[in-house]
């Protein structure tokens, strides 16, 4: 092995340092959220959970959460369906325009989202559609559905087409094969795609900014308060949003783990 | 079997294709059309002229374009430098720690970009986490590094790190250990192995990572606004202002088109160079 011991230690230290840097700003936000003062300055003199109480009681916050949640849930459901079929076209089937399709998918991901958001605003305008949180769902899909498709495609690359062919030889129709063989095989990819879709939609700002119309999502509100008119609720809501998404990851991972454990115990019984 | 594959492939591409046509290609066509409308109109039913494009040069918008491209270039170069050792570690050295690192980086992605940038403002501002504590302990304060070009590039590097790191790690993982070992056995130095073996073989990952971070950084808006305090104006910022305060859709569209042509051209060029099947899965 050409990598010496000291290089290895240096690399580990470097990795830990990078993680520290990634999370340092979140530590500041967390401290700021429990400061009692209306105008923040470190070191924090008096701690309190006052702003959390205010956030929970505020009707604006409730509306922001409802809008963000509605968008994210719809985006997740639609993305997972699209990604399931999209990934099959991406990785599984050999068809004529496959490479073109693969490249078309990458374009929106490589695109400045601000420009995408504005383009969608003008497109809705020329169609005579008034923007609301529903148009934001369409906007999020442009960016999130391709990413979800790529995630499922990684899984789709690694499964054996012979399984489907065997089922077909035994007389199963296309839909039966999709439901009984392909869907269960891709399930882990679909779960992570759904998780990504939800969290990316939950945190998205540039696409929401132009396409939500009179409605407003959490990232939009946070941005508005950051550039003009600071509110002590900014760090508080920031922390709540972070904790909320981490809880979601935990729930999703434990559900996935339970399903797997259940399947394994059934397989052991048979 | 082949005709069936062809039919199913086409059918299953349809949902995504419909979404992309209706919400990507069509809006792009609208931007292109608006960019050749006369100033300050809100419908496409006007005689086309190209006045919006001449404004780009006359009113100095090319400066923000150059700033954006320059900062994107700088952040991509820095990212390449700081991500390489880490990506190398993830691909070749860390065992379990690769998973820990991957989860840590991915989790940070789920926190809204705005919140993370705001966190840096709290960390770096005068009276912030660092300066505030430093002054409380030593009695000496110092100026905040916020609101300048350097801090904007720092913000870009921070936000787009994952987009460089993961493709790079994937690329380095594609370099066979045998080849490296053979080069060492033949007496190659560390630098020769890096330049003549690792960089060429990891090229797909390097290309994808650099392209992603450059393109995203060139279109970024929040870093210059939140961290940079308008020290320099990014092109995305100009575009947003043209649409919102300026109420000048044709100008905003023309600026967008210029950015789209540069970035889209780069993205298309880069994407056409990589073999997706080889990077993402096995080659069939």
UniProtKB/TrEMBL annotation, chain A:
Transmembrane segments: 12-34, 69-92, 104-124, 136-157, 177-200, 237-259
Domain ABC transmembrane type-1: 65-252
An annotated GO BP: transmembrane transport
Keyword annotations from UniProtKB, A to Z: Cell membrane, Membrane, Transmembrane, Transmembrane helix, Transport
SUPFAM superfamilies: MetI-like (SSF161098)
Membrane topology, as annotated: Multi-pass membrane protein
GO cellular component: plasma membrane
Signal peptide: none
Subcellular location: Cell membrane
InterPro entries: Bact_Polyamine_Transport, MetI-like, MetI-like_sf
Gene3D superfamilies found in the cross-reference section: MetI-like
The keyword Cell membrane appears for this protein: yes
Chief location bin: membrane
Family: Belongs to the binding-protein-dependent transport system permease family. CysTW subfamily.
Protein name: ABC transporter permease
TrEMBL record, chain B:
Gene Ontology terms describing biological process: transmembrane transport
Residue stretches making up the ABC transmembrane type-1 domain: 65-270
Transmembrane region(s): 12-37, 65-87, 93-110, 146-166, 199-222, 254-274
GO cellular component, one term: plasma membrane
Family annotation (Gene3D superfamilies): MetI-like
Annotated Pfam families: BPD_transp_1 (PF00528)
Membrane protein topology class: Multi-pass membrane protein
Listed InterPro entries: MetI-like (IPR000515), MetI-like_sf (IPR035906)
Locations listed in the record: Cell membrane
Primary localization class, coarse: membrane
UniProt keywords, alphabetically: Cell membrane, Membrane, Transmembrane, Transmembrane helix, Transport
Family, per entry: Belongs to the binding-protein-dependent transport system permease family. CysTW subfamily.
Protein's recorded name: ABC transporter permease
